[in-house]
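Recall that a protein's primary structure is simply its ordered list of amino acids. Everything else, from secondary elements to tertiary packing, is in principle encoded there. The following example makes that idea concrete.
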Amino acid sequence: MPSHDKPTDPQTTHSADSRAATEAALFEAFGGVRGMVETTVPGLVFVAVYTVKRDIHVAAIAALGLSLVLGIARLVRKDTLKHAFSGVFGVAFGAVFAMMSGDAKNFYLPGMLYTLGLAIAYIVTSIAGYPLLGLILGPVFKENLSWRTRNPGRKVAYTKASWAWGLILLAKSAVLFPLYWWGDATQLGWVKVALGIPPMLLSVYLTWIFLAKAPPPIDVFAEMEAAEAAERERKAERERVAQPQPPSY
């Protein structure tokens, strides 16, 4: 039989569709590779300028200016607003904190605290049976919380992925906080830049692996639409039955 006449394996098709949907959801939720780069480059600019100029204000303004340009570029391209503003606010907070405290290391402290808090949240929610990654990606997959009670395979996948995120971010924090306490600003800055993208890529890759092997999501939005359509049909049928019938002779 010619290869183009071979029947398509439904399992292979489902696997490919599941992987494609998972990739699209992860890119939407985390901003893709571009989002990772945009969260790393302002920190790179800060530490590079500070290493050369040794001026907190110049370094902070340079990083904030670049972050604003990247945010405006996303707005011009009509990208998701959360990705456009989250980076700007994060850099602005760090820049203000560093300038007010007079310590260049404090440019990185808000992001480090956020990373540590996020790591704890991933682990605690996994232990509690509400893995954070499921809460984040459930609406993206249009499954909301159906994975908790109706799709146990996906709950397991979300739990594994949340544990992976939590442990990876904890490991990142374990490297950065000692540098914050005992290292100088340039050491902390360059190490933080180096640890910007690789841990994120590893976390996203593991999430993709776990979810691609999990059962497909239950589209609760489609179920609600189907239920509403069925209800409209039943209502229309009741109205037709209730209408008086013309007498027959």
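Residues 49 and 59 are 5 Å apart (CA to CA). The two ends are 66 Å apart (CA to CA).
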